[in-house]
Specification:
There is one protein chain. Helices cover 84% and strands 0% of the residues. By secondary structure, it is mostly helical. It has one domain (11-158). α1 (9-44) runs parallel beside α3 (91-125). It is elongated, with a radius of gyration of 20 Å.
Amino acid sequence: MAVQRAESAEELKARLEREHNELLQELRALIPGATVLFGFLLAISFTNQFGDLSTFERDIYYATLVSNAIALVLFLAPAAHHRLRFREGDKDHMLQKGNREAIAGSVASSVALTGVLYLVTERTFGNAQAIVVSVLFLVFIAWRWWSFALLRSLRDGRR
């Protein structure tokens, strides 16, 4: 039986620092896309065609806008928290909190991306096609973003 060596305080600090930096790097990749989408969504509301949207389309638009805004807040929260708690020795908590926010942000982003796809498809091809494409797209997101990790966690949990 192999005896595992306890992680020293210095090794723990280095690991937490590395993991926190990895999280911030991942968020740096997500934030620009969410920001650009938010800008486009805001700009759409000031176009002449925006007045042509049905009540349902406006509801989808608003849900999409709010979902994207929530995603942005969640993606930016770990950096804001880090600034407020800098050098407070709270890296483990910041990492756990940031991980949850990144996951929740990806859920909000998936709703926003699906909403945008619905609106464009509905305007281009009609409601029936928009529903089919949006559902398939959301399933695709769930498959690519979450299913692999969740299935792996389930398999690891059984061992």
